[in-house]
Design brief:
Strand order of the largest sheet: 3-2-1-4-7-9-8-10-14-13
Shape: elongated
Helix content: 25-40%
Largest sheet: 10 strands, mixed
Number of strands: 25
Strand content: 15-25%
Radius of gyration: 30 Å
Number of helices: 20
Distance between the termini: 71 Å
Structural class: alpha+beta
């Protein structure tokens, strides 16, 4: 008996799938790297029978006798009908009893009535340990898929492609959204399936799964192609699609000359990142004024070394939307901790009155940064969609901290295309306060990095301050080691007494300090910037206090760049352009006096403690080298 929709529980189904996996791998001894193919064969028979007009044969009664033979016959019959595998296919499960156990586990489930990507979930169960694989692919959370579809204004008239379709999640969700929005007939659904839904997938197993996923929802396997999208030219599909929605593979390079030479962004380069080439593929496949929604590492939008890529984007297309996603958004779906974003681009240059959408999502419907998926009600992506068609000139903030703006297209610059850059620019234009004036850091201070190689003076002792030696938030230092030049590797930043030190790595941690007066010179990491006031009328301790203010911290958090959430950085030009609060003279003098005295007392107290600590240890005949201690 097939379970009704009300009786089905997705988590229970996943438990049964895990039992199937155990039978295939443990009891049948089929290797983990190929067991998934066996599950696809079983899925084809299960789904093929489920969508059949006849009474399903996928039950333990039909397969009770001659289980393996009957299964292989039905498998090939359905494969001939739906074209999932090439040629004759058979199961590698040797025991009819084990195969019957698997059939018994699955026979009562109605996959068509489950409002989830069943095939994608099965793929994750079987291959989660190697989910990213060698191809850099990650599965896309349903919350992000739904947002991208809503943002792109789905229509049954559009021809849609996902050139990295995986198990077909974008295509299935797109079709479901059409059913919900347009209330289209079954006949029209089949027309959309057969003509308008396309997917490319380089991974053969995933292409099988995408076909089965589409089979569950209709019969659109015709346009699921097992091809490398970077070699799509063989399909003669340039200028064919109205809409492309995709989450392409990323984080590895293409070095094959034959592929590189096909693309403007690959020519004359020894290598190019696959995600960069994928966007050029999308532009080629789109019709004039067609739209692409694409997930990308955010570093492509904000790191200086990718400016050529951003210039290419603005030359080829109109930016419709740039949405920043929280760090760790893909951790439950492929073990990626990358900082990602979503770009929406329309092929062709912008019109004069064009506006674009900028969004920074803090919450996206599930817990980010955790390996296990857990759904939550907070979702800024829904907040963005609910306000998408309203024309706002001011910043709007959700209850969960998500922010969005609609800006004049004239504000776009290839310097950066990430959402937070434009949000901080907007904030800077709307800042103000009674007790201070706002000025760009570069107008009141020098920001620089004098370099030195200590190893060239091997026997010289250097005061060597490392980033962890500076405490978070308060920026206190309790000791600075003395180290011979020969023991310090690589180029370092040199500092002098009273220099302000600003850590560009993890800048949100607030590792900003002033070198004690007693330390005349030393070296530190190249992740440290040196800052000094340009004029004597701005005290350095007052400047340090300004750099620690929430006004500055909020700008820093928005201007951090890079794709890896594990090593975010603030680039020197962005730091120079931060607006800092300059207090009125009387308050500035008071802050200068308080902070200078506090930091001097703290340093002297720490040094006094270390001297006392050494004497105590020596009382026992032991000794301690204070020059080797990084702090108290």
């Amino acid at each position: 008996m097939i379970l009704s929709e009300g009786e089905m529980n997705f988590e229970d189904l996943m438990k049964d799938i895990k039992k199937c996996k155990e039978i295939i791998e443990v009891e049948e001894g089929i290797r983990k790297d190929i067991s998934f193919i066996e599950m696809i064969k079983i899925l084809l028979v299960k789904v093929g029978e489920e969508v059949s007009d006849e009474k399903t044969k996928f039950n333990s009664i039909f397969f009770k006798e001659d289980t393996i033979k009957k299964f292989n016959n039905l498998l090939n019959e359905l494969n001939s009908k739906h074209s999932i595998f090439e040629g004759v296919v058979k199961t590698n499960v040797k025991s009819g009893t084990n195969l019957l156990r698997i059939i018994n586990l699955l026979e009562n489930w109605n996959f068509r009535s489950i409002d989830k990507d069943v095939s994608g979930a099965i793929y994750q169960i079987f291959l989660k340990a190697n989910l990213r694989g060698s191809l850099g692919q990650f599965f896309t959370p349903k919350e992000i898929v739904d947002f991208m579809i809503e943002f792109s204004e789905p229509s049954s008239k559009k021809i849609i492609l996902d050139p990295a379709c995986g198990s077909g999640g974008f295509l299935i969700s797109y079709l479901n959204k059409l059913k919900e929005k347009e209330n289209i007939s079954s006949k029209r659904i089949m027309e959309v399936f057969k003509n308008n839904l396309w997917g490319f997938e380089i991974d053969m197993e995933l292409s099988y799964l995408a076909k089965i996923n589409l089979l569950l929802n209709g019969d659109g396997a015709k346009h699921i192609l097992n091809i490398n999208s970077l070699n799509y030219q063989e399909e003669n599909l340039d200028n064919h699609f109205d809409l492309i929605l995709t989450n392409p593979p990323f984080s590895f390079n293409i070095e094959e000359r034959e592929i590189l030479d096909k693309y403007f962004l690959g020519k004359n380069r020894k290598k190019e990142q696959i995600d960069i080439l994928f966007l050029e593929v999308c532009f080629n496949l789109l019709k004039a004024e067609g739209v692409v929604g694409i997930v990308l590492p955010e570093g492509l939008l904000n790191l200086p070394k990718y400016q050529y890529f951003r210039e290419f984007i603005l030359n080829q297309s109109t930016l419709i939307g740039s949405i920043s996603l929280p760090a760790g958004a893909f951790l439950p779906f492929g073990q990626s901790n990358s900082k990602t974003c979503i770009l929406f681009l329309k092929r062709g240059r912008a019109s004069e009155n064009q506006r674009f959408f900028i969004g920074d999502a803090k919450e996206i419907g599930f817990v980010c940064g955790k390996k296990e998926y857990r759904s939550i009600s907070k979702n800024d992506l829904r907040f963005f969609i609910s306000n998408l068609n309203n024309s706002y000139n001011n910043l709007k903030t959700s209850a969960d901290g998500g922010r969005f703006l609609q800006l004049d297209y004239k504000k776009i610059t290839s310097k950066r295309l990430d959402a937070k850059y434009y949000l901080v620019n907007y904030s800077q234009d709307n800042m103000g306060g009674k007790n201070y004036t706002l000025m760009k850091l570069k107008d009141v201070a020098e920001v620089y990095q004098p370099k030195i190689n200590p190893s060239k003076e091997p026997l010289k002792e250097f005061y060597y301050l490392e980033i962890p030696d500076i405490s978070e938030n308060t920026g206190t230092i309790t000791n600075i080691r003395k180290v011979l030049g020969k023991n310090i590797n690589g180029i370092k930043t040199s500092f002098k007494s009273n220099d302000i030190l600003f850590s560009r790595l993890y800048p949100e941690k607030g590792r900003i300090t002033i070198v004690p007066e007693s330390i005349k010179e030393g070296v530190t990491s190249t992740e440290i910037y040196i800052i000094n006031p340009k004029k004597d009328d701005l005290g350095r301790y007052s400047l340090l206090a300004s750099l620690k203010s929430s006004i500055v911290k909020n700008q820093v958090n928005d201007l951090v760049s890079g794709s890896s959430s594990s090593r975010p950085r603030l680039h020197i030009e962005d730091l120079k352009n931060i607006k800092i609060p300059i207090l009125k003279k009387d308050k500035q003098n008071r802050v200068e006096e308080i902070l200078k005295k506090a930091m001097k007392n703290q340093w002297n107290s720490a040094q006094e403690y270390l001297d006392g600590f050494k004497k105590v240890i020596q009382s026992f005949g032991d000794d301690v080298d204070l020059n080797g201690l990084r702090g108290i």
